[in-house]
Specification:
This protein folds into three domains: 4-62, OB fold (Dihydrolipoamide Acetyltransferase, E2P) (Beta Barrel), CATH 2.40.50; 65-132, Orthogonal Bundle (DNA polymerase, domain 1); 146-195, Orthogonal Bundle (Helicase, Ruva Protein, domain 3). Helices cover 51% and strands 19% of the residues. It has nine helices and five strands; from the N terminus they run E-E-E-H-E-E-H-H-H-H-H-H-H-H. The chain has a five-stranded mixed beta barrel with strand order 1-2-3-5-4. Strand 1 and strand 2 (16-21) form a beta hairpin.
Length: 196
């Protein structure tokens, strides 16, 4: 199985990219956010999901392993094919998809072309536990973006070094991040100090 393909961008459209690696051109279907990120680059490294059929050998490419993981969770749902999963990932970021599923937001999934109420409910029922699996006591999603996870970790360890209990610090940081996920470490610590 191929984990990733790294090479020169030969062709790029909102739905696919052709990467040339070692003299081979790989046609890789991508979600819209990948197109935006790749449009200013001459080469790329994409984590791929392979689909082997009788009549086709398909690659779906993602900027991060986290994106590929969410894509694979989506296609594990009965009735969700690779194109529908790609449509979902073109409509929302990985973090938004996780929040939608965790919150059971059927209408947000319904807003995507080709997804009816039953399919939206099936996605939520099938994936809610998987999205929330590994959830810690404070209630953060286990699939938080790497940057958010790092910021959270730094803020919690700073508060612990200041003498606050780890559990309370973690809970405070998570509650703040639920409301404002774009904060930097210093802002996060200052806000946590006010509520601890």
């Amino acid at each position: 199985m191929i984990d990733y393909i790294k090479g020169q961008i030969v062709e790029l459209t909102p739905t696919y990219v052709v990467l040339e690696a070692n003299g081979l051109g790989y046609f890789i279907s991508i979600p819209l956010p990948a197109y935006t990120l790749l449009s200013h680059q001459s080469e790329a490294k994409l984590f791929v999901h392979e689909v082997v059929r009788e009549d086709a050998y398909l690659f779906f490419g993602f900027i991060t392993k986290k994106e590929r993981e969410v894509f694979q969770l989506l296609i594990s749902v009965s009735g969700i094919g690779v194109n529908t999963a790609r449509m979902i990932m073109s409509s929302y970021s990985v973090e938004e998809i996780q929040e939608i599923i965790a919150a059971g937001n059927v209408s947000a999934l319904n807003a995507i072309k080709g997804i009816g109420s039953k399919t939206a409910q099936r996605i939520i029922v099938d994936l809610k536990d998987k999205i929330l699996k590994g959830k810690d006591d404070g209630g953060s999603l286990s699939l938080l973006s790497d940057k958010n996870a790092q910021i959270k970790e730094e803020a919690v360890s700073a508060l612990v070094m200041l003498g606050f209990p780890a559990g309370a610090s973690q809970k405070a940081i998570e509650n703040i991040l639920k409301e404002q996920s774009q904060l930097e470490v210093e802002q996060l610590i200052k806000m946590a100090l006010k509520i601890l």
